[in-house]
From TrEMBL:
InterPro entries according to UniProt: DedA_domain (IPR051311), VTT_dom (IPR032816)
Keywords: Membrane, Transmembrane, Transmembrane helix
GO cellular component, one term: plasma membrane
Transmembrane segments: 21-42, 77-102, 122-144, 189-208
Protein name (database record): VTT domain-containing protein
Gene encoding the protein: phoA
Species annotation: Kuenenia stuttgartiensis
Domain named VTT: residues: 51-171
Keyword Signal assigned: no
Amino acid sequence: MNHTEQLQISQIKRAGLHRRLYDWTLHWAHTPYGSIALFILAFCESSFFPIPPDVLLMALAFSIARKSFKYAAICSVGSILGGGFGYFIGFGLFDFVGIPILTTLGLIEKFDYVKEQYNTNAFSAVAIAGFTPIPYKVFTIAAGACKINLWTFLIASAISRSGRFFIVAALICIFGPKIKHFIEKYFNIISIAFVVLIVAGFFVIKLLK
């Protein structure tokens, strides 16, 4: 068996595991522990869990639309605290824990790119991170490994993650279940638009100084 075949088998196994974890994540929306599971998922996803919390957030919000913002708040707090844990992993346990996590999830190649972003502008890199296709855990672990200021990281994380989750909550609360297909299909475009607003905000603030 050559290297290419081994890589393909590894990717197939990873995809199968990802699907099972996805289904397992969704099933919590149909239990009395949905809110607790959402917090734990958001916390874990920021440092090592592969399934984004948006999956459970949307399932819970669609089931009770009037609680959308409550679920978004729970998700935001869990993600921000989990980001702090990811920062700790990168800061003190990168070689022993951080590298194995990123390698197992197939994300180690993205680490160098994220590190370059931090060297350019740490705050904007974190603020935009929550809306990029790159899993957030890469940014949290890299933030600790690059020793960026903890408060800069936490404030930017709060803006980024809260913005992402509350956008979802607002769409669901306003439009209800009929917005489901739109979110699933166009959420990346919505995210990019929000990033553009963040960047524009930075420029406006800079011009006003």
